[in-house]
Structures are given as C-alpha cells and as structure tokens.
Design goal:
38% helix; 8 helices; 199 residues; six-stranded parallel beta sheet; two-stranded antiparallel ribbon
C-alpha cells in the first residue's frame, strides 16, 4: 500500500525498527506497545518490566503513555502505535500538544492498512499525513523517518532533547514476529513493578 504524500520515506520493517529502538533504552524508559503486531514485535524484541503490552484497546496507546509521562515526569515514555489505531483517536495528539510533556516520544508505524483485521486500507494510504496532522495539533517535533539511520537519529534526539516528539515510519505489510502472552493481570503487575509503584 503506497502513501503518496510521503515522497522521501523508505518502506522499512517494524520488527527491525523495534529492535533498533529497544537497543537504545538504557534508563528504564517506559514503553507502551499498541495492540496487535506492534506489541508482538515489542515482546519479541526482549521483555522488560517497563514495557506495557496493549491487549484489545485500540486507540489508547498514546493516552496511556501520556498518563504515565504526567505521573512520572522523571521517566521517559515511548508510545508505539499503528496508523489505524492513531486514526481512531486523533484527538489525543491535541491533548499531548496542550500538556506538552517533555518526556514523551510517540512512534507511529504506518503501513496504510488495518493489518490485523484483514488489511483494509486506512486513510493514511490515501490522504491523511499523520506527521502533518501532529504538527497541526501543535507537536512541533514531528517528522517522517526517511530510512533506518534517520529513525535512529530522530529517536536518539527525542530521548536526549525531550519532547513531546512524534516519529512516523513507513513500514511494510509483514506480520508481527511471535505473539504476546495474553495475560493482562500479569502484564499490569509486571509493568507496575517496572515503574516502581508496586513491590
């Protein structure tokens, strides 16, 4: 599926980018993985107690990450979200811009399809430019990653300089690698321990 408004962005692989991202986490950053393939790839990149794996809550990755960022301003928080889920909850970008947490980085995986439900095209496959939308909402530090090296640079800068920041990457249609253990009670408990709010 092509994204005609993104002329200079290479189509990359979500799992490979997820591994690159997680390799740069060195200060117990919290990572919220969106539903489906996004959190499957996060899970297979190496489980951490600071990772939260969404199960069936489409569109809520960024709102949850925003809540964690506000509650723990000393901890950097990363939201990993798909284009379809973001389109379901676009208003969250305006809220992020208004609250302006310096410790929040949003990463959008855009393959132009609702991959889990049958690969129906999303609006980003035709007309919606998610970076332009984020900028219009007031997230000034929003950009397309043009290739893997640019993704690394944008993510490293976001962690070092603070945000809020949004990085969007065009990804291919490959399915997620593996699958997350579907135990919401265990996921919640481990994440609370990882954030230091539960012994």
């Amino acid at each position: 599926m092509s994204v005609p408004h993104v002329h200079n962005a290479k189509v990359m692989n979500r799992f490979e980018l997820t591994k690159r991202l997680t390799s740069k986490l060195t200060h117990e950053e919290a990572v919220i993985g969106g539903i489906g393939n996004t959190n499957f790839d996060l899970w297979m990149s190496g489980q951490r107690p600071q990772n939260f794996y969404m199960l069936g809550s489409m569109g809520l990755t960024i709102p949850i990450a925003l809540g964690v960022a506000i509650a723990q301003p000393q901890r950097h928080v990363v939201a990993l979200e798909g284009d379809g889920s973001l389109l379901m909850q676009l208003s969250c970008l305006a809220t992020v811009a208004e609250r302006a947490p310096k410790n929040l980085t949003i990463v959008i995986w855009d393959n132009g399809i609702y991959q889990i439900t049958g690969s129906q095209p999303t609006a980003s496959a035709a007309t919606a430019d998610l970076v332009a939308i984020a900028q219009g909402c007031g997230i000034a530090k929003s950009a397309w990653a043009v290739d893997e090296a640019d993704f690394d640079r944008l993510f490293t800068t976001a962690i070092a300089e603070g945000g809020p920041s949004l990085i969007a990457a065009r990804i291919d249609g490959q399915p997620g690698v593996g699958a997350t253990d579907r135990d919401p009670v265990q996921i919640r408990a481990r994440f609370m321990q990882g954030l230091g709010v539960k012994r």
